Each structure stands twice: as C-alpha cells, then as structure tokens.
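Reminder to self: tokens first, then the designed residues, so the page reads top to bottom the way the pipeline ran.
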C-alpha cells in the first residue's frame, strides 16, 4: 500500500514528467545551483584584480587572453554542472516513479488474486 507522500509524488510526477525531461528545462532548472558552484571562481579573479592591482598588472601582460579563456571555461563548467545535476535529479525521480508504479501493479495483481480466490471459496 502506498503512503500519501508516495501517492502525491506519483500524481505530481505524472504531470511534470515530460516537461522536466526536456534539455532546456534541465539546463534552466539547474542554473541557480550551478552559479553558486561557478561564481566563487569568478569572484576570486575579480578580488585578485581589485586587492592586488600591481601583481595583476605584472601578470596581465602575459595572460591577456588567459582571462577570456578562464571566463569561457567557467561558463562551460556552469552549463555542464547545471544540466548534469538536473539530469541526475530527473533520473532519480523517474526511477522512484517506475518503482512505485511497479509496486502499485504488484498490489493490484495481489488484490485481484485475493478477490478471485475469495469468490471461488464462496461458491464451494
């Protein structure tokens, strides 16, 4: 027998399952957490520039294009983390959904079997 929490999950997941399986939905849904993951890297670059400008100017002549590469790399990390995290979350929800559906199906089969055996016992 399913608990009320499991039943509410089943009904909710049946409604949002297809919508959340789309690529853009996964990408957009994971962006807040991905930004929390990637922004400290960007903040550290900005802090080095502001807190130690003399060191930054000495190094900046050597890594002018390096900053752009770092920014692109951090952006790609953010996008990858966003999609991967939400895809993992979707897979976990889908697995739970399929397990609960199998449990429901098994319970229904057991109920039908019990009903059939009860009706046979009553007729004899």
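Designed residues (124 positions):
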């Amino acid at each position: 027998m399913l608990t009320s929490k499991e039943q509410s999950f089943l009904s909710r997941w049946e409604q949002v399952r297809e919508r959340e399986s789309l690529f853009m939905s996964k990408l957009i849904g994971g962006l807040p957490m991905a930004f929390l993951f990637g922004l400290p890297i960007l903040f550290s670059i900005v802090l080095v520039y502001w807190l130690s400008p003399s060191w930054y100017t000495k190094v900046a002549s050597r890594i002018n294009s390096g900053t752009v590469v770092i920014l692109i790399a951090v952006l790609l990390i953010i996008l990858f983390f966003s999609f991967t995290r939400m895809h993992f979350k979707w897979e976990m929800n889908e697995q739970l959904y399929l397990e609960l559906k199998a449990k429901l199906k098994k319970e229904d089969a057991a109920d039908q079997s019990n009903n059939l055996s009860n009706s046979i016992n009553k007729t004899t």
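The mean pLDDT is 86.
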